Amino acid sequence: MNYNGIIFVCLVTFYFPLFVWLSFSYIKFADDGSGHLKRKNVYLGFLLSISVFHFINRLLMNMPDSYGLMSIVSIILVFSVYMLLVIMRDRRREAI
């Protein structure tokens, strides 16, 4: 594995806890298991779309693995920015 692969693995390893925190904060997951229903549906749609994209990529498009990985990572990063913006907006509303 070259240095680019090592850097990518390190970034993914350190990004995973942030993604988990963003996910739980986005759906407002509480201790009793309740959360925001619309956001849960959006989040499940996001997970389903990633899975469908991966399935279509592997079976129909035959895109090289590096392009497929880059596409999935970029989709995850864009959705993470969206979740962060929603969380920041919610925190701003709670502060007022």
Overall description:
- It is a single chain.
- The longest helix has 31 residues, at 65-95.
- The mean pLDDT is 83.
- The chain has 96 residues and is mainly α.
- The chain has one domain (18-95).
- The N and C termini lie far apart (50 Å).
- The radius of gyration is 16 Å and the shape is flat.
- The chain has helices spanning 3-26, 37-61, 65-95.
- 83% of the residues lie in helices and 0% in strands.
- The protein has 3 helices and no strands.
- Helix 1 packs parallel to helix 3 and helix 2 packs antiparallel against helix 3 (65-95).
User: Strand-residue fraction?
Assistant: under 5%
Q: Please, what is the average pLDDT?
A: 83
Distance between the termini: 50 Å
The total count of helices amounts to 3
Quantity of strands, as a count: 0
CA-atom Rg in angstroms:
16 Å
What is the number of independent domains? 1
Structural class: mainly alpha
Bin the helical content: over 70%
Largest sheet: none
Low-pLDDT parts are none
General shape: flat
Please supply descriptive tags for the structure shown above.
96 residues; mainly alpha; 3 helices
Secondary-structure blueprint:
Layout: H1 3-26, H2 37-61, H3 65-95
Could you provide a short overview of the structure?
The chain is mostly helical and 96 residues long.
